[in-house]
Amino acid sequence: MGWLSLPAIRLPDALRLSGLHTLRLEVTILNAVNPLPAADRRFMSGNEAVARGAWEAGCRVAAAYPGTPSTEILEYASQYEGMYTEWSINEKVSLEVAIGASLAGSRAFCAMKHVGLNVASDALMTETLIGIRGGLVIAVADDVGLSSSQNEQDSRFWGRFAHVPILEPSDAREAYQLTRTAFDLSEQFNTPVILRLTTRICHVKGVVSPGERQEFIHPEGFQKNPATQVMTPTNARHRIPLMYQREERIRQYSEECELNPIQEGSDRRIGFVTSGPAFMHVKESFPDAPVIKLGLSYPPPLEKIRALAGTVAQLVVVEEVEPLLETEIKAAGIPVLGKEILPRIGELSPSVLRPAIDRLLGEAPAAAEAEPASPAPEIKLEPGVNLFPRPPTMCVACPHLGIYYCLSKIKNTSISGDIGCYTLGAGQPWNALDTCVCMGASMGVALGLDKGRVEADANKRVIAVIGDSTFMHMGMQGLLNITYNKGNVTILLLDNRAVGMTGGQDNPASGRNLHGEETFHIDFRKVCEALGVKPERIHEVNPYELPNLFKALREEVKIDEPSVIITNQPCVLVDFYGVQPPFTVDEEKCTGCRNCLDVGCPAIFVTRRETVVKPNGKEKELAFVRIDSAVCTGCDLCPRTCGPDAIIPVQKTEDRGQKTE
Amino acid sequence: MSENKITNILVAGIGGQGVMTAAEILAQTALALGFDVKKTEVAGMAQRGGVVTSHVRFGDQVLSPAIPPGETDILVGFEPAEALRWVTHLRPDGVAMVNQVRQEPPVVSLGLYDYPDDPVAQMRQTGIEVHAFDAGAIARELGNLRLVNTVMLGAISEYLPFSPELLKEAILERFRARKPKLVEINEKAFEAGRATKATN
């Protein structure tokens, strides 16, 4: 396979574009273009391409837990016939399901985001000793640039750690091709294979020419073989040398295979070693430079790289994120530059690469003048300097708004948070979330905040905030640990019946599976009871009914034992949510008190500000507001914060003949 | 290098405005014409009111999916401050088409930041060709705020390396397949956007 396997599509000369203002072309000219039949050229995201590749490879079982940027892989996979697909409750389970399916003789697949493999790694580190029967492929999507993640870890480490090969596509077309290749490699070498993706693969669309599905079923099915499948110390000890031998065979294969081509180039001042989307950035920036492109990036073909080094003045490794190849190439005694000149965080897009290489060649301004390495160089501004940021916000009418409104009004708290939309509660205007580590961590961290408290915090109330999906992913164990160890924690379990942050996927709290079919619907009250919370310490509350929520919170934080407050309103993005008639502001009644702004709903805007001096001489900032009735869903939360009853249904103002938005 | 001429379109706005759909239609049109096309999708948490940008690149062969800074041919700004945010990505002879309807984020409502007085004027200071108009008003007149998307596509249609008719056809085809009732109104929206170019 090659990275340029697309048949070159030649456009008529009239289409060779020279400048914007000469671009108006006649339809008749364009009709002369004769593209491939539409069916052969599909426009797919990397995620869609991976799903297609897995299906074509004859994969029969695919599992995942949603996580940006990998979520859509399973959503697309679920649309194909002949492949069982599921939302697993966490990544470790998804890998275990895939391992079982592989041992049963089917080709099997799981997908996750980078931090998901941390969770699944316990399974991976022993699965690598067991090996496979049907090909086993683990797609891991790194969030290079941290678009929606708590860290930027480099999943290529797992190849080194688990001694398994890593394939790295550099666009959607390759994602499709390499997914198919991954299953073949897995069987050829009896190993799980990691397909390393990044956000720039998952969420970039390109042209893919898909093929047909080829069925794969191991004729013998599952075999009982304790020596290779039951990893007791005795059995595992025998498997370890085999794992190392396998790694050596793949290392040899890496030197010889077509997955790691050298692209010759006429400009021999610098040669590049690169993989993944960085390869495209290199080709875009330096089209004439020699490049070795690593489709199979672990184990790296060190002798091939040595050969390339001998033909260029300098060799540069362009890898996102950590200097892994660089370290290994240097250890092999090959002179190479890497993170000395390129940033260790963020994408290595042309905007980062070009200035760095120009500096190396002495063709750029001195380093002092040049831009420092930045994870998001695109957001640098000149004319728009000091432009406000537009960080992600909670949605209009989100059920979490009322919860954070209440939390922000309760004093003397330590609030451990978790992974989900509700992590945004750490921001303005609520500032009501104090920690965020990893999935489920709110539970353990809360107990630690309780048990580790010092004298100064003797009266602090410890609160943990966790969503339904995160609770089922890894939070339930933490709750059991709290009750078992007699912790004093008030838990807010925000059940919005969906995996909200990734787009509202189904889970046991929605009672529907990946295919939208009805299935087991978890009862959180029963679960919490079973995990040791006293029935009288469990409350179910509608988070839009602020007085009830306040009351439950205030009572439970005073009690010295674990309690759980379950909020029960759905995510506004899913079909359980019912839109109500919108609200508007009666401008004559609005006193500018700002209370409604503390809700943090993005449908509320300030129209004017005033500073008044109160009788006691203190200044007070007033802000008069308006509601964007076009987006308001009538959740009835902000009216409850409005003393003068200035927030009223749109209908009423119309009755009175007033102008509405 | 110049042989492989790539057209670079940067669509910028806010989650929920239809930025991704506009980019998708542009990309699909280019694809149908036989170009190689790449298009970035939403980065992460965008549906929560954050900044959304989509890079659409097409030509003989597209390598990196990210438009290098200073190489954008057309900036489609669904919101004036967001258009300003990306103006430095344009080439000196590029064009910006801006919807004038402001959307203030909560950080502005809370008084933590100011919204610029006149983002479009700041853009014009760079010497770049900027067209700004109230796409929201056009959409409202036609009776549906969601038409902003089609209005914006109509407005840039004269600047594309293919006929405006082809883009219009691609939009209408999409609606024929999904929401046939909306075909006619989208055609009007497209033409209204296209006509506005002459007046701003």
Strand-pairing-aware structural class of chain B = alpha/beta
Q: How does CATH name the architecture of chain B?
A: 3-Layer(aba) Sandwich
Q: What about the largest sheet of chain B? A: 6 strands, mixed
Total domain count of chain B: 1
Query: What is the mean predicted local confidence, pLDDT of chain A?
Result: 90
At the third CATH level, what is the topology name of the largest domain in chain A?
Answer: Rossmann fold
Can you tell me about this structure?
The complex is a heterodimer of chains A (661) and B (200). Chain A has 661 residues and is an alpha/beta fold. Chain A is built from 20 helices and 22 strands. In chain A, the strands form six sheets. Chain A has a seven-stranded mixed beta sheet with strand order 3-2-4-5-7-6-12, with helices on both faces. In chain A, α15 (400-409) crosses α19 (546-558) and α16 (441-451) runs parallel beside α17. Chain A starts with 26 loop residues before the first helix and ends in a 6-residue tail after the last helix. Mean pLDDT of chain A is 90; it is low at 1-36, 366-381 and 655-661. Chain B has eight helices and six strands. Chain B has helices at residues 19-32, 80-85, 106-109, 119-124, 135-142, 148-156, 164-178, 183-196, and strands spanning 6-14, 36-40, 51-59, 72-77, 90-99, 129-133. In chain B, strands 2-3-1-4-5-6 form a six-stranded mixed beta sheet. In chain B, α1 crosses α7 and α7 (164-178) packs antiparallel against α8 (183-196). The longest helix of chain B has 15 residues, at 164-178. The mean pLDDT of chain B is 90. At the A-B interface, β8, α11, α14, β20 and β21 of A face α1, β2, α2, β5 and α3 of B.
Pick out its properties.
heterodimer; A: 661 residues; alpha/beta; Rossmann fold; 4 domains; 7-stranded mixed sheet; 5-stranded parallel sheet; 20 helices; 22 strands; B: 200 residues; Pyruvate-ferredoxin Oxidoreductase, domain 3; 6-stranded mixed sheet; 38% helix; globular
